[in-house]
């Protein structure tokens, strides 16, 4: 398949995936309270448990699904994940109690893996000089879905109830499943990869640069989800009243998403030209400084402007990290590598809300923005100082660098080829010597016959 066709199809799939998720998650506390009968005294407990359990299960399962993506096929894992997520959304619209919803979220954690499998499939088709722009487009699609989801979810919830949103989200995942079955082909493996064993996670984790990428993306996701639970409350503090708070908060949230959708492909193209290491450090630093500055405004308008700018910075982090993972791995390893990356993000996503809630309990909300910004700047500084030199160069300088085991394998193959050539030459020489001796023997026999006749 042409890589542009694959990118276009998978971009549409990712928009549906992200929109279906975000049209439900922001309204989950309301769903628990209004339709599942959660006690107001235990509502926060149920909300936290239902959010956290999916992240926790997904963090455990993501590496397993990643390895299966490499061994069983990327298309198959997309179909597995999208169909199972569709089932969880359908069950979510049928549950009657918070406990039932808790078990549905456990199943959703097992079903997860659609995003890393999608990245692995797109990367298998993408030319090496287009990795940056493709990862930027995929990230932009993810962000666009995150913008559209809450808007559609809010309208549907007001008009038909939240249960209807679950059924529509299930329909969106069924569409992804059918599109993948009928329009996407499993990327072919190179001959040398067909019989090669899949790498172990220990080998991948020891790959130069990969642990640092996992560290950076995991903590970044922690910062994102550290801020989300308190954002609405802080916007209410800046306004001084709670009139239309949900609507205003949604608009402020969407500003960073709009900025991210615009900037993600630009970051990807820039990373392709100057190096993804530089764009990763730059975007981490920019996002950190801008988030820390959100500590300063006392009114909503400058805070909202900074929120838009924060989206410009954040949108370069994950495309750069994804592109670096692609450059550090072979197609045989990408499912496993993206599974590890997704797991790191899920761990950060599970920890972030807990830390944010703890900080908000003892200090004012504004200070969380300053702390979050400082964390991102420290991540950027750590990446800058600790990232191995092998992955700091431009893509064209590091693109052809391969893992050590691949180099060793090539050396062995080359040595075997040279030995085979030497043996072939020796056999050829031996055959030539035999032919010369046979000719000499024939000549000697002929001479003897001539002498006998004389």
From TrEMBL:
Domain of life: Bacteria
Any one Gene Ontology molecular-function term assigned to this protein's record: transmembrane transporter activity
Record membrane topology: Multi-pass membrane protein
Membrane-crossing segments per the record: 7-31, 43-65, 77-96, 102-122, 166-184, 204-226, 246-267, 279-297, 303-325, 337-359, 365-385
Main location: membrane
Protein keywords: Cell membrane, Coiled coil, Membrane, Transmembrane, Transmembrane helix, Transport
Annotated protein name in UniProt: MFS transporter
